[in-house]
Amino acid sequence: MSVSDARIEAALDAGDPDIGTLWELCMLFEFDREETADGIAKWLGPAEGLRILDCACGSGFPALELIRRGYDVTCTDGSELMLTHFRRNARLEGLDVRPELMLWEDLPRRHAEGFDVVMNRGGGNYIYAGAWDDEGLADQAAMAEAIGQWVACVRPGGRFYVDITRAADLERREDQSVVHPTLLIGQHTVDIAETISIDRSTGIRTWSSTLTVDGTPWEFQRRSRYLRHDQLIEILKGCGLADVRKTPVAGEYYDIYTGVRT
Length: 262
Ligand SMILES: C[S@@+](CC[C@H](N)C(=O)[O-])C[C@H]1O[C@@H](n2cnc3c(N)ncnc32)[C@H](O)[C@@H]1O
Prior knowledge:
The protein is an alpha/beta fold. The chain is about 30% helix and about 30% strand. Bound molecules: S-adenosylmethionine.
């Protein structure tokens, strides 16, 4: 399968693949960036006067797409590695955006009540609280704490946007294994095999991937505990959000919950 995607091609050209390269590639299988950005923009409403924080901006989705659509998005992330991907993607998009390197724990001090909308999407990023770069394991208290730090940046009356693995996928007892079709991207041949397993006795979810670029395999593994939807809803309400609801957003691969800060 031949893929034309300047961002991913540039990531592959940049050198040895890392977790950011893998994430960029996985998005390719999960959703169409432009279609999803249109869906998010529809939920956001008119751009004028709206201050948005994407506090897990990662390699740039959906912040860069929203900025291109005229939104004022402040971008933060705790990983320099991911921001290297972000900056390269911003350059490719012709956008002059300076993301801030910032851990979630530092957000309330810097950005308390500073935004009309705070968003954090990417498959339930709270499960990686403090653990994206180093393969650690966040517990439920750490996840709730992280979500509280994001919500603290929403002004009273402002809106919050977060995602979570679809309920049916969290219910699965068997491993989910996928071998994606071989991709031809620029000069590169890419194969990805992924397995997601959930161990119900320990509550630990393991995402293992083998990314093979031009014949060289690279192994990645992220272990995390996970939240059920009802647990996420309780945490969101406990953080001072009202009108917490599952919100359909066209193009989103994960389930979305939104709320309004009281
Ligand atoms: C799965 S990526 C999602 C990126 C992007 N929002 C997207 O949808 O493509 C999760 C991001 O959360 C960031 N992250 C994880 N723990 C963090 C923390 N404690 N503080 C700040 N960012 C963190 C990671 O660096 C990573 O870029």
